[in-house]
């Protein structure tokens, strides 16, 4: 049974005339007659008394009319509601970001900023497990509207995102800092640069992670290379932090990620400021993206950044 059959029947019940009902429904009379016949076959009974002039409803037709009007009304209201939901979804901006930035800057700054400016956004939660190339592909193919990620000139993803297809804003400055768990007396378990006779256990990153190229480049430039022995490697800084807190070694993580742990004394800095690596956090968009809310958000972010009010 089709909803339009119900509307055909309602029109016929109102006009009591096949020709006038067909005109009202903008179909031919044979088409309307065929649909009413199909409806009667579907219900297994006669709904229209065709022997009376004007046409009349059978007792079953009277019962069916009440149900048809109710079903037609529900169908119309549901269609309107679905349209409203579709419009709301089409107005939402989709973010992609790393696990670390989701837990820190996205929830603390980006989400409140968008809510303040009444710009609906969604986070693609799958993106929290992506590596660099996944973000580039998603942005290029329109699978997300915005990518929030770390940036450093040595990152492969930075070179791929910094081309003419994309535009970026520097959302915040960040640092990779070396951290370690503490001993029973509250002193750092490990301190850079370590000794050749006693290298430091190092919790590092896999090659396809954001931070691996940054740290490799940074360590190679040091006049006094640290003495390290790699104990474990991870993709995400959250996992590196977890291993460090358990005392398995030291490693570099974004400062925002360990701010609370440093303040509460569960972690300590594992070296001087010379061992800290500056990063940026950037927001990228595809220049070809014509999402109606994207330009509005971009302009508001630019203004807030220029006025030093972003996050205020």
Describe this structure in words.
By secondary structure, this protein is α/β, with parallel strands linked by helices. Helices cover 46% and strands 20% of the residues. The protein folds into three domains: 3-89, Winged helix-like DNA-binding domain superfamily/Winged helix DNA-binding domain (Arc Repressor Mutant, subunit A); 91-166 and 279-306, D-Maltodextrin-Binding Protein, domain 2 (3-Layer(aba) Sandwich), CATH 3.40.190.10; 174-278, 3-Layer(aba) Sandwich (D-Maltodextrin-Binding Protein, domain 2), CATH 3.40.190. The strands form three sheets. Strands 3, 4, 5, 6, 9, 10 and 11 form a seven-stranded mixed sheet that branches. It has a two-stranded antiparallel sheet with strand order 1-2. The mean pLDDT is 89.
Number of domains: 3
Reading off the top of the CATH hierarchy, the class of the largest domain is best stated as Alpha Beta
- Superfamily (CATH H level) name of the largest domain: Periplasmic binding protein-like II
Overall, the morphology is elongated
H-E string: HHHEEHEHEHEHEEHEHEHEEH
Residue ranges: pLDDT <50 for 5 or more in a row?
none
Q: Could you say what the CATH topology of the largest domain is called?
A: D-Maltodextrin-Binding Protein, domain 2
Structural class, by secondary structure, is alpha/beta
CATH architectural arrangement of the largest domain: 3-Layer(aba) Sandwich
Instruction: State mean pLDDT (0 to 100 scale).
Output: 89
Give the radius of gyration: 32 Å
| Biggest sheet character | 7 strands, mixed
Q: How many β-strands, per DSSP?
A: 11
Number of DSSP helical runs? 11
Helix content: 40-55%
Strand content: 15-25%
């Amino acid at each position: 049974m089709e909803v339009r059959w119900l509307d055909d029947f309602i029109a016929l019940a109102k006009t009591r005339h096949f020709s006038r009902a067909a005109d009202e429904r903008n179909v031919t009379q044979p088409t309307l007659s065929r649909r009413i016949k199909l409806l009667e076959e579907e219900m297994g009974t006669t709904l229209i008394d065709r022997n009376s002039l004007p046409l009349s409803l059978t007792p079953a037709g009277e019962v069916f009319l009440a149900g048809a009007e109710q079903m037609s009304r529900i169908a119309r209201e549901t269609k309107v509601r679905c349209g409203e939901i579709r419009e709301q979804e089409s107005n939402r901006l989709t973010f992609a970001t790393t696990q670390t930035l989701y837990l820190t800057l996205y929830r603390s700054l980006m989400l409140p900023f968008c809510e303040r400016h009444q710009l609906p956004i969604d986070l693609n939660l799958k993106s929290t497990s992506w590596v660099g190339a996944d973000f580039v592909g998603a942005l290029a193919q329109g699978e997300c509207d915005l990518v929030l990620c770390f940036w450093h000139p040595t990152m492969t993803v930075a070179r791929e995102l910094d081309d003419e297809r994309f535009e970026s804003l520097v959302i915040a400055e960040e640092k990779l800092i070396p951290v370690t768990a503490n001993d029973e007396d509250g002193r750092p378990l490990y301190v850079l640069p370590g000794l050749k006779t006693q290298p430091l256990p190092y919790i590092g990153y896999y090659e396809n992670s954001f931070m691996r190229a940054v740290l490799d480049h940074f360590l190679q430039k040091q006049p006094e290379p640290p003495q390290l022995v790699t104990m474990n490697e991870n993709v995400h800084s959250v996992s590196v932090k977890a291993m460090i807190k358990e005392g398995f070694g030291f490693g570099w993580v974004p400062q925002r990620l360990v701010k609370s742990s440093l303040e509460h004394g569960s972690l300590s800095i594992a070296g001087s400021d010379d061992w800290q690596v500056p990063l940026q956090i950037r927001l990228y968009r595809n220049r070809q993206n014509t999402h109606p809310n994207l330009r509005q958000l971009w302009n508001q972010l630019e203004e807030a950044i220029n006025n030093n009010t972003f996050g205020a």
